[in-house]
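Renewal narrative, Specific Aim 1. Our central claim is that a sequence can be written position by position from structural information alone. The example that follows is taken directly from our test logs and has not been curated for this report. It begins with the structure tokens describing the chain, in the order in which they were read.
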């Protein structure tokens, strides 16, 4: 717990503000609110669909429940209630019975997508929008995950466990352009505009055995690697880890720099705790990636179950 607390405490350090014109307006225009999703095209969908050869479908989302590893302060609780006539008896001549449920949960647990309202730079978020212009306690008025476009595009798996010859990849290992290019070459793929890139590190194997350790430290994407992927026009980047980026951070004085690079500077969505194990086992390096985020209005993050088809 002390390790986790140290990570969270580091995240409260003041970061120097950047010059206003250094990272916004966005390349997609000052009024844009969906970022790299602008790179999704009908042509890209048709090309990705041609990758389907076997019809095998992979659920990339983990089962979310009360034992799911969560960042400190987050929680999950489900209450199931019976449906009846209000007095405990079946309804009508057909004796209808059933159940309803109420879910009380943080949205950012399990396999999740981070929207642009999640992380900013000195309270400015994607395209330089200040938090005061969209934050409300009952739901953000801009960048809500209900506005993330449905996604069907080429997915790429980079097997970093295979690259490093270690599963899991050791905590704190940061992969940047050199490692990304080497893993892509080994996979026989070239990363391009509109792609979704997923990293397999083997780290998720710790989630059940050591949930605190799964959160407290992890291998992941480095800052230069994030900038590189953004420059290629990718739409989303994800991994089988809880933060995508390497923890301990590359620079202890700059917490969550990959979140800031992808979400804030470049408008690239982040996927966390993605179940990549079966893809890696099958050496599935490229596939049709499909994601329709739930459309809960005003949410900063969303629990998702992306699908890979090959």
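The sequence written for that structure reads:
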């Amino acid at each position: 717990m002390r390790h986790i607390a140290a990570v969270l405490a580091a995240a409260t350090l003041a970061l120097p503000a950047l010059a206003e014109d250094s990272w916004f307006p966005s390349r997609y225009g000052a009024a844009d609110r969906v970022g790299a999703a602008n790179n999704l095209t009908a042509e890209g969908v048709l090309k990705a669909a041609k990758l389907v050869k076997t019809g095998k479908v992979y659920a990339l989302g983990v089962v979310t429940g009360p034992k799911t590893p969560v960042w400190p302060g987050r929680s999950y609780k489900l209450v199931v209630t019976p449906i009846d006539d209000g007095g405990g008896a079946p309804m009508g001549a057909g004796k209808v019975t059933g159940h309803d449920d109420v879910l009380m949960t943080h949205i950012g647990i399990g396999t999740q997508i981070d929207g642009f309202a999640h992380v900013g730079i000195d309270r400015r978020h994607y395209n330089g929008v200040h938090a005061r212009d969209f934050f409300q306690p009952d739901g953000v008025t801009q960048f809500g995950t209900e506005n993330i476009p449905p996604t069907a595009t080429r997915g790429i798996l980079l097997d970093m466990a295979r690259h490093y010859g270690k599963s899991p990849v050791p905590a704190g290992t940061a992969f940047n352009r050199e490692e990304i290019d080497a893993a892509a070459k080994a996979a026989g793929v070239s990363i391009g505009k509109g792609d979704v890139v997923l990293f397999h590190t083997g780290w998720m194997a710790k989630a059940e055995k050591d949930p605190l350790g799964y959160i407290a430290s992890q291998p992941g994407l480095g800052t230069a690697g994030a900038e590189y992927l953004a420059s290629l026009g990718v739409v989303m980047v994800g991994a089988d880890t809880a933060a995508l980026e390497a923890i301990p951070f590359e620079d202890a004085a700059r917490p969550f720099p990959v979140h800031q690079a992808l979400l804030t500077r470049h408008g690239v969505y982040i996927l966390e705790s993605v179940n990549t194990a079966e893809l890696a086992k099958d050496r599935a390096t490229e596939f049709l990636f499909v994601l329709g985020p739930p459309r809960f209005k005003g949410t900063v993050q969303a629990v998702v179950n992306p699908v890979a088809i090959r």
